Q: What sequence folds into this?
């Protein structure tokens, strides 16, 4: 896809979702990291219902570092896969405290070294916590829309991201990260897309109406 076409699509989506932003609630970079880890295979809505009580009592990386893993498992149980997520969060807090002096690193290279933080999560943290997007987080919504619209023919999220980076100038990374998620949740739904309400349907390869 040509860059001008891709930009035209994003500009159209910006008009549809002028308030598109991150749907996870957090106050600090570490809380953003925790929320992103918990959001794996879990809805942001469920995460936002779970984290307030946790962050009220355990707001810092040092609190997680000292917390008993059984307590952590119980706290994050509603978000699913709680044992694996608890292990990752304990290991992440240990690394941040012992290697980075309690400060969440603000580079992609360092973030992806942290347990439980892959490239997609690192992209989200760089965007939301540090306001310095380095790429585009490809979740299920971004993947679906990228394939349907023609941004990418790939199925691997990492390859899709590279295709997106090729067609979007960096100044659009902030918008692309949010708009693909919002459009996927509200209009370009997986099983029953609302094609009649889609402003970019003329570009779609899978439109039904």
A:
């Amino acid at each position: 896809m040509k860059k001008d076409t891709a930009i035209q699509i994003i500009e159209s989506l910006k008009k549809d979702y002028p308030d598109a932003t991150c749907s996870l609630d957090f106050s600090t970079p570490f809380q953003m990291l925790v929320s992103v880890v918990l959001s794996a295979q879990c809805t942001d809505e469920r995460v936002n219902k779970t984290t307030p009580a946790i962050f009220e009592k355990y707001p810092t990386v040092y609190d997680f570092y000292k917390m008993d893993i059984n307590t952590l498992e119980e706290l994050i149980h509603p978000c699913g896969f709680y044992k694996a997520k608890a292990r990752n969060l304990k290991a992440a807090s240990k690394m941040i405290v012992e290697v980075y002096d309690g400060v969440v690193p603000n580079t992609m290279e360092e973030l992806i070294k942290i347990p439980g933080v892959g490239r997609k999560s690192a992209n989200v943290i760089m965007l939301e916590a540090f306001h310095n997007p380095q790429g585009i987080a490809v979740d299920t919504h971004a993947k679906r829309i990228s394939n349907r619209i023609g941004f990418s023919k790939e199925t691997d999220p990492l390859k899709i991201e590279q295709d997106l980076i090729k067609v979007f100038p960096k100044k659009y990374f902030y918008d692309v990260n949010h708009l693909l998620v919002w459009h996927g949740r509200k209009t370009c739904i997986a099983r029953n897309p609302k094609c009649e309400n889609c402003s970019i349907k003329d570009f779609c390869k899978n439109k039904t109406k």
